Amino acid sequence: MQKVQVTILGIIGVKSSHVFYWLLLEEVLGERRVPILIGKMEAQSISASSQQIETPVPLTHQLFSKITDNFNIKLKDVLIVSKEEGLFLAEQTWQHGSHVFLIESRASDGIALAMACNTPIFMDTAIFDKLDEIRSEQTKKEHETLEKREEEHLNNLLERGIAKIDELEADI
After folding, report:
1. How far apart are CA 141 and CA 4, in angstroms?
2. What's the pLDDT tens digit per position in 83-134?
3. HEC states along 40-96?
4. For residue 55, with 0-12 CB atoms within 10 Å meaning exposed, 13-18 middle and 19 or more buried, which class applies?
5. Which of 11, 19, 33, 92 is deepest in the core (most CB within 10 A)?
């Protein structure tokens, strides 16, 4: 598995929902982007951490970060992977002394923890490759649809032109 570091480009509310948001991730050294659907609480936590907003009482992910700091447990990195179509998970690498261990979570929780712990976020490049493949297929379908519409339009114009010529010939 190859991985690439990503950064948060932004969070946008889903128009038809008050509980879901789109989190847009982008390659640090590239231009490819991936949207991930996340919940309201994770969106708030990620936003607060990315904007360095101090809340009167720590949000859940910030609280967890403070607890791990007190016990000298460090979040080394978060790797976003895809387990199923559209489902993203995070593999978190934690270290306590010489002991390194992995914990799997929802991608949104992993990202929120990474933001609270000021930890790098990585993504499996296979996710970008799959999205590129899907976008390429969609572009191909859109192009084929456009070609078909243009052909139908030209055929329609041709039929109308022939009909007008037939009318003119009938009048002569």
Report:
1. 29
2. 776 689 999 999 999 999 999 999 999 999 999 999 999 999 988 888 777 6
3. HHHHHHHHHHHCCCCCCCCCHHHHHHHHHHHCCEEEEEEEEEEEECCEEEEEEEEEE
4. exposed
5. 92
- For 107, the token pair is 């991608």
In this prediction, residue 2 carries a pLDDT of 92
Residue 139 CB coordination number (10 Å): 10
Residue whose token pair is 């499996």: 124
Query: Do the beta carbons of residue 37 and residue 11 sit within 8 Å?
Result: no
Contact status, residue 48 vs residue 55, Cβ threshold 8 Å: yes
Q: Is 2 helix (H, G, I), strand (E, B) or coil?
A: coil
The 10 Å Cβ neighbour count of residue 96 is: 12
Q: Does position 135 have pLDDT exceeding 70, yes or no?
A: no
Q: Distance (Å, rounded) from C-alpha 148 to C-alpha 50?
A: 46
